[in-house]
Amino acid sequence: IEIVPRQECKTIQVPRTESVPEQKCNQVPEQKCETKYEEKCRTEYEKECDTKYEKECSTTYEEKCSTVNEQVCDTVTETKTDYVTATECNLVTEEQCHDVP
After folding, report:
1. Which residues are paired to 82 by β-bridges?
2. DSSP string, 47-95
3. Rounded CA separation 14/17 (Å)
4. What are the residues whose beta carbons fall under 8 Å from the beta carbon of 99, sequence distance 6 or more?
5. Reduced to 3 states, what is the DSSP secondary structure of residue 99?
6. What's the Rg (C-alpha) of the chain?
């Protein structure tokens, strides 16, 4: 009896996974407002034998709004899996019998 090693190979499908980071951006409209205060004054002098001094003030309030597009970005990691072909081999031992005369 003789023990002979031999190699057996077969083709198999092996999954290969790859993570790909990708930056995705989009435009987000956002309303921005600005408030302005303005004080307006007027001074009046009046002279009638004595001097009168009068000051009138008023505050005006104005709000201006506008829509601006702001770019918002996120990094998204996408995992992709595909299958590649590989060869798998195993060593197999086999007994061989010879007829002895």
Report:
1. 16
2. EESEEEEEEEEEEEEEEEEEEEEEEEEEEEEEEEEEEEEEEEEEEEEEE
3. 10
4. none
5. coil
6. 44
Measured between alpha carbons, how far is 75 from 88 in angstroms, rounded to an integer? 38
Residue pLDDT, tens place only, 79-98: 888 888 888 888 887 776 66
C-alpha 25/C-alpha 74 separation (Å) is 6
Q: Which residue has the tokens 């009068």?
A: 54
Tokens of 58: 């008023």
**What whole-number percentage of the chain has pLDDT above 70?**
88
Which tokens sit at 94? 């086999």
Give 94 or 75, the one with higher predicted confidence: 75
